[in-house]
Each structure stands twice: as structure tokens, then as C-alpha cells.
Design brief:
membrane; HotDog_dom_sf; about 40% strand; mainly beta; Thiol Ester Dehydrase, Chain A; THEM4/THEM5_acyl-CoA_thioest; about 180 residues; lipid metabolism; Acyl-coenzyme A thioesterase THEM4; two-stranded antiparallel sheet
Length: about 180
């Protein structure tokens, strides 16, 4: 199913997952979809591997953590998720040098915490490679990075505007 992109999120300078100047990082771009899901389409490189041609489990976890933690931005744009608990299930090897789709969404938001789920899908956009459930503390972006670091937090326009993303996955969302 094709989902309309409602907003592209900001990137940072040095974050391992989204940092545009982190040479060892993934340099991912995150998109908010009309169905309340945050998505990134990315691929790993050889220095992200564990076994040959397989992404390291810690990197898989980082991708899911970041994507779910960003999902709170849809309803609370100045809020970020700080991880309290994360449970990842590795279902199939995540390949390197091959496109993967990482999705995250909120399942419950109450007070100063929220829960979310996420998946990593293969390039066919339907085969599940990993799943995740997480609990997060809500924190204001200004409290996390400070006013002096906001210059490292920036909107990076796409070379080709992404207006919709096709994903063959049924999202079970509740809030």
C-alpha cells in the first residue's frame, strides 16, 4: 500500500543513525506517513556487519530504537523519546548493501512516557527481518541537545522529493 509522506524530519550532525557528518553512521532520512508511522529506507555498509553480508544486531537495534523514538514527533513535534526499555526480535538476517525499510509507531502515550513498536522489512517491503517493542521517556529536544547545539539539528532536503512510500505491511496501531 502506498502511504503519503506528510513531513520529512530533521537530521543531526553526528548521530550514528541520522548524522549527516558521521562517516561510520547510516545517514538515514526519516519520513512521517499519513498513517502515523515514521519510516526510513536505508542500507548498511561493510563496516556495519557482524557475520559476512549481515548487519550487526546492535545496528539493527539502533535503527529500530531511533525510528520508534522519533514517532512521538508526529503528535508532539518538540518531544523526543529517550529509551527506557527495548526488546528486539531478530527473525531473519538483515543484509548489507541491500535496501531495507524501518518503520516505527506509537502504541500508547500517557503522561511522560510512551510505548511503540517497529519492524525492519526486506527490500520487497513485506518480509519481516526484525521486530521491536520499546518504552520511552518523553523529553523536550531543547533539554536534550541544548540551545547552543541546535545549529547541528537541521532539515536536509531530498535530492528528489519523497511524496509517498510503498509498504506491504499491516500496521497494528493503537493509542
Amino acid at each position: 500500500m502506498k502511504y503519503k509522506v506528510t513531513r520529512k524530519q530533521f537530521n543531526s550532525d553526528e548521530c550514528f543513525v541520522c548524522g549527516i557528518h558521521n562517516h561510520a553512521g547510516l545517514k538515514t532520512a526519516f519520513y512521517e506517513l499519513e498513517n502515523g508511522v515514521v519510516v526510513t529506507i536505508t542500507k548498511g555498509d561493510n563496516f556495519h556487519q557482524s557475520y559476512p553480508n549481515r548487519m550487526h544486531g546492535g545496528i539493527i537495534s539502533a535503527l529500530l530504537d531511533e525510528t520508534i523514538g522519533r514517532a512521538i514527533n508526529i503528535s508532539e513535534p518538540e518531544t523526543w523519546g529517550v529509551t527506557i526499555k527495548l526488546e528486539v526480535s531478530y527473525r531473519k538476517p538483515v543484509p548489507l548493501d541491500e535496501e531495507i525499510v524501518v518503520c516505527g509507531w506509537i502504541t500508547k502515550s500517557k503522561g511522560m512516557t510512551f510505548k511503540g513498536e517497529g519492524v525492519i522489512l526486506a527490500k520487497d517491503r513485506k518480509t519481516i527481518l526484525a521486530t521491536c517493542e520499546g518504552t520511552y521517556f518523553k523529553q523536550n529536544i531543547h533539554d536534550i541537545i541544548g540551545e547552543h547545539r541546535l545549529s547541528g539539528w537541521q532539515f536536509i532536503p531530498d535530492t528528489h522529493a519523497v511524496t509517498e512510500i510503498d509498504i506491504d505491511y499491516e500496521f497494528a496501531r493503537s493509542e
